[in-house]
């Protein structure tokens, strides 16, 4: 979908910082953009987010988890993404369907086909035009971040899980190469920002 841009990466790659920098860039340059995030981003979707990330919900099945992400996605699309795109805005979404491919499809082992079927129902035609992937292997990302967040059910899943998630992103990129803007965040955060802006200019988004 034109002007729908998503940002993806495993934990600790500096995604939040880059999203913030992009937001500041848009503001400074008078670019009419909406910034939002998944899971959550609107009232009902935030309630679903709380259920998903609650560390007391340890017994949640992988299938249930995948459906809840897809449900939150459908709601957030309706509430935030579609109205903004219809108003001619650029929409930047922090995580979207590729997180489900990577985390539920490969991390949890449900398979990419399962995630595709489920999400086709949830999102219809609303695939991102471009997806920025911050590409850092999990062992490097965790080192930078200083370990996992013990209050987050997803982050308590262990290193092996995050390696699978990273592999999941790599497989997803292989399946849809032209959509992805792969950026290695190994330089300073300002260098990474410049790379992202340059790529978005080249694609005609900025
Ligand atoms: P959040 O605290 O927003 O993480 P981050 O700052 O890393 O974006 O938590 C979102 C968590 O949900 C994160 O661990 C990734 C996970 N997730 C999925 O497993 N599947 C999905 O479809 C989405 C959108 C997120």
Walk me through this protein's architecture.
The protein is of the alpha/beta class and 206 residues long. It has one domain (4-202): Rossmann fold, CATH 3.40.50. 54% of the residues lie in helices and 12% in strands. The protein is built from eight helices and five strands. It has a five-stranded parallel sheet with strand order 2-3-1-4-5, with helices on both faces. The chain is globular, with a radius of gyration of 16 Å. Thymidine-5'-diphosphate binds next to α1 and α4.
Query: What is the number of independent domains?
Result: 1
> Helix share of residues?
40-55%
CATH superfamily: P-loop containing nucleotide triphosphate hydrolases
Low-confidence stretches: none
Radius of gyration based on Cα positions:
16 Å
Q: Please give the CATH architecture.
A: 3-Layer(aba) Sandwich
Got a strand count? 5
The CATH class, by name, is Alpha Beta
Distance between the termini: 16 Å
CATH topology: Rossmann fold
Mean pLDDT: 94
Shape: globular
DSSP strand content = 5-15%
Reported for the largest beta sheet, the result is: 5 strands, parallel
Strand order of the largest sheet: 2-3-1-4-5
Count, helices: 8
* Secondary-structure-derived class: alpha/beta
What is the H/E string?
EHEHHEHHEHHEH
Q: Any ligands, ions or cofactors bound here, and which? A: thymidine-5'-diphosphate
